[in-house]
Design a protein that fits this description.
Keywords: Cell membrane, Membrane, Transmembrane, Transmembrane helix. This is DMT family transporter. By secondary structure, the protein is mainly α. The protein is about 75% helix and about 0% strand. It is built from 15 helices and no strands. It has helices spanning about 5-35, 40-55, 60-65, 65-90, 95-100, 105-120, 125-140, 150-170, 180-200, 210-215, 220-245, 250-255, 260-270, 275-305, 325-330. Helix 2 (about 40-55) packs across helix 10 and helix 4 (about 65-90) crosses helix 9 (about 180-200). The longest helix has about 30 residues, at about 275-305. It starts with a helix and ends with a helix.
């Protein structure tokens, strides 16, 4: 590769790598702005800031969607709402490090579920990688000694399962195939926000978004804007820009470093102290998910050659980089 080509590749890779960094830090940001009483309010505010921008940016293509595509995106939005609820409540009840690493199990759960749906057999290397990741989570949740996983750990595990369901539904639903990714993301987020608004209107679900916003200090507003502007808008448009200049596999590989940054941010900035068992768990999760991504690629490529689907809405993880929908699923 020439020096000029290498420089261009680096300039394309850098924004995607920054997306992985901000996603890794999003768990700390969510902890900085959210309490058990403000989860729904924060979700409404965060995506209430994002939605108008997405609508304006993609208005023409939004109007071009068919009714079937809109309904399909709406269904995906309901799943997305469940992911956000599990993740955000989970983050409140666990550490930023645990949240970022446990949710990375989506990269392991997705090919397992995919293989069950297709009736294919997982490779031995992938099974070993999955086992390594699960062992890492077990150690991570123990901290300095053996104990039951926290409520937050279990909620994050549920969020990883929900993400897997979302990825598979996104790649299998014929009604959303061929749809513009910006439009699909906008409708999904809109559906999710409607769920949050309905829930926050119910008694006993916490304060209203307006009350929460009035109580925010400068620091909380900065965290909220960071989640909205960088972890959502910047991440979405950076992916769309990069995937048009490089390969989806390269984008996916760079985004796969998210759990590394989650661990770095959680331990260095949030002051998380996972203990020796936890640190060993961190290393096992990072090794297992990285190994699992590599092991899943040749198997998925073989399946795709044998059974082409014609889908243009690719699974976000682990075998392809979704060009827009993946962004919405971040905490």
């Amino acid at each position: 590769m020439s020096t000029t080509a290498a420089r261009r590749a680096w300039l394309t890779d850098l924004p995607v790598l920054l997306v992985a960094v901000v996603w890794g830090s999003s768990y700390l940001a969510a902890k900085g702005v959210t309490t058990t009483q403000t989860v729904l309010a924060v979700l409404v505010l965060r995506f209430g800031i994002v939605l108008p921008v997405l609508v304006v940016a993609g208005w023409r293509k939004l109007r071009a969607l068919s009714g079937t595509q809109v309904r399909g995106a709406g269904i995906l939005g309901l799943i997305l709402a469940g992911i956000f609820l599990l993740e955000t409540y989970g983050i409140v009840h666990t550490s930023a490090t645990n949240a970022g690493l446990i949710i990375s199990l989506t990269m392991i759960f997705t090919p397992i579920a995919e293989s069950r749906m297709r009736g294919t057999k997982l490779s031995r290397s992938f099974v070993a990688a999955a086992g390594l990741s699960v062992l890492g989570v077990l150690l991570l949740t123990q901290g300095a000694g053996f104990s039951e996983p926290s409520l937050g750990d279990l909620l994050m595990l549920g969020a990883a399962v929900a993400r897997t369901v979302h990825v598979l539904a996104m790649s299998r639903m014929k009604s959303v195939q061929g749809a513009d990714s910006l439009s699909m993301t906008t409708i999904q987020l809109g559906s999710a926000v409607m769920v949050f608004v309905l829930l926050v209107a119910m008694p006993g679900t916490g304060g209203t978004p307006w009350a929460a916003a009035a109580d925010f200090g400068a620091g909380q507003w900065l965290w909220l804007l960071y989640l909205s502007v960088f972890c959502t808008l910047f991440a979405f448009f950076a992916q769309m820009w990069a995937v048009r200049r490089t390969s989806p596999s390269r984008v996916s590989l760079l985004l796969g470093t998210e759990p590394v940054w989650a661990a770095v941010v959680g331990i260095t900035l949030a002051g998380d102290q996972p203990g020796w068992f936890g640190l060993l768990g961190v290393l096992l999760i990072l090794a297992g998910t990285a190994w699992g991504r590599v092991a899943a690629v040749p198997q998925q490529a073989a399946v795709d050659r044998a059974e082409p689907t014609g889908s243009v809405v690719e699974p976000a993880e682990p075998d392809g980089a979704d060009t827009g929908l993946k962004t919405a699923g971040r905490a």
